[in-house]
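Q: Could you predict the 3D structure of (Mediterranean fruit fly) hypothetical protein?
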Amino acid sequence: MLHAINRYLLIFLAVNSVSAEDTEAERLFRDLEIVPDVLDEPPKELLKIEYSNGLNVVGGEELTPTETKDEPKIYWPADPATYYTVVMTNPDIPTRQNPATREWLHWLVVNIPGTDIAQGYVIDPYIGPLNPKRVAWYEMYFSYINNRKSKCSMSL
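A: Sure. Here are the predicted structure tokens for (Mediterranean fruit fly) hypothetical protein:
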């Protein structure tokens, strides 16, 4: 049995790979009904996510807010000469059954050279999962986007 306010479902994705067959990521996103609820198409592969406590995240795994309170390291197939964007969101606030507020941004970093997130420009600093009352679990999504060979210009 899930303990209310102590767990959430962590999902992660990568969005710029191509494959002719269903991958583990595609099956996971369809099984969890992320496609078509959140995304039109599933990602082709999963990100590698590692928290400072040595926890390596596996797609669809339940983790506690304590386990994920600190900013993770994220790895994906990257060209060091290309700039990327990393996004972490919860698409169903407060719950999937009642997404009244809908999507909540937990982390946004742009102009990341390769996978070196520390060298990127932080627009929204990492906020670990929140503990909504009366919610057994909720979903968190990580994604990376292949931007371009030059930095995005920022005017905020």
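Q: Anything worth pointing out?
A: Confidence is low (pLDDT under 50) at residues 1-20.
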